[in-house]
Amino acid sequence: MQVENPRLVAALPELGVELRPAQPLADWTSLGVGGTTDILLIHEPLHLPELIRLLDAEGLPRKFLGGGSNLLIRDGELPWVMLHLSVRDARPVFDGGRVTVSAATDLGRTVTECARQNLGGMVGLIGVPGSVGGALRMNAGAYGVEISQFVQSVTLFRAATNTIATLPASAIGFHYRHTSFAPDDIMLSMEMNLPPQPYEEIRAAIKMCNEKRRASQPVNEKSAGCIFKNPPGASAGKLIDELGLKGHRVGGAVVSERHANFFVNRFQATAGDLLRLIEQVKERIRAAFGYELEEEVILWKD
Dihedral angle at the C-alpha atoms of 114, 146, 208, 99, nearest 10 degrees? Predict the structure, then answer.
């Protein structure tokens, strides 16, 4: 999809928007796959309502691309323009234990910046890839910690009303790898409240989490994290492992030998390879155990 109207292109800089034409989204996702489209980098989020009005007037469909770490995008020319939050100064702002952070900020960086301020609690999230906005949308969690535990409020663009709003945590439904945000809501910033903890204690805990992650996950290969949510009372990775599917390959996509719920792009995989691998594993699990695995990774395939 291309942004072609000269008047629209000319208006973008005034709205704090930078046009990046014909971008291969393989370069913007942790899986390293995805088709091609124009990307609009949003440097001034408060102008989002006007930008959306202009895109609607041109009949340009769009999707919002965050950190690209939990996302599998189809191959070929894509039928949507991509919006990407790209705030130039995205450092967290501290007021005691209250922290305000842009949704564009890397989640791991946020954990370490908070640690330097002697604010803990988030250590389990240190190795979760992607942005704060993506972590909010899916209620990211690891090692017994979920980001929802710390949220006080979220400021977001609401596509349904073309407005920017701030929601208290009590107005947001946080569930296991799911939230009540609408699919076309765009996270802009988050306010958290974190408990005090000495930096040296946090640093030691971060080191332990990183070592555990390196020992159990394919951190040096292209992946999107866990492909499937865990079924009630079971582990998706363990079920896949029990069927001997570690190392199973479709094209360039492989079930990781280190963690069976990670599918890696090892041999220049296409999105089609990964989608076929996902379906094959789901079919095998359904036949063997009766579970209907649900994807944790977000699929843009239509």
Answer: 0
pLDDT digits (tens, 9 = 90+) for 14-54: 999 999 999 999 999 999 999 999 999 999 999 999 999 99
Q: What are phi and psi of 19, to 5 degrees?
A: -90, 125
In total, how many domains does the chain have? 3
| CATH number of the domain that residue 12 is part of | 3.30.43.10
Chain-centre distance for alpha carbon 231: 21
Q: For 130-177, write each residue's pLDDT tens digit.
A: 899 999 999 999 888 999 999 999 999 999 999 999 999 999 999 998
All residues at 6 or more sequence positions from 94 whose CB lies less than 8 Å from its CB, including other chains? 117, 119
What is residue 36's three-state secondary structure? strand
The parent domain of residue 159 ranges over 93-215
